[in-house]
Amino acid sequence: MIETSGIDHIVLHVADISRAKKFYRDILGMSVYRENERQVFLHAGSQGVALFLSSAPATAGSDLNHLALNVASGEYESLKAELENNGVAVSGRPGDDRCIYFQDPDGHRLQLMFRK
User: Fold this and answer.
1) Per-residue pLDDT reduced to its tens digit, 81-98
2) In a domain, 80, yes or no
3) pTM for this entry
4) Count of beta carbons in the 10 Å neighbourhood of residue 99
């Protein structure tokens, strides 16, 4: 039996590689570890997110419903405000201060998770 130890990376298809890289690096604080003109690989802690340039949107059944990211530090209200100050529309669950939902520039649904 194969024993896996975690996820190396997930792939998100994007229409504009520079715009997506800027969003994930500058707003979400990920660090680039490899890139070329069609792909950017970023670290989110010990996990990876790969952005692949694609002219066709993902089709039903091959796309993720959403990507949930753990938050290393910060409070709900301050991180929500930081996203909004960067022009990102934010939503959440009423009465639940453990997560923030939003979309990246390509429409992927993202979630920030707060551990208590």
Assistant:
1) 999 999 999 987 666 767
2) yes
3) 0.82
4) 16
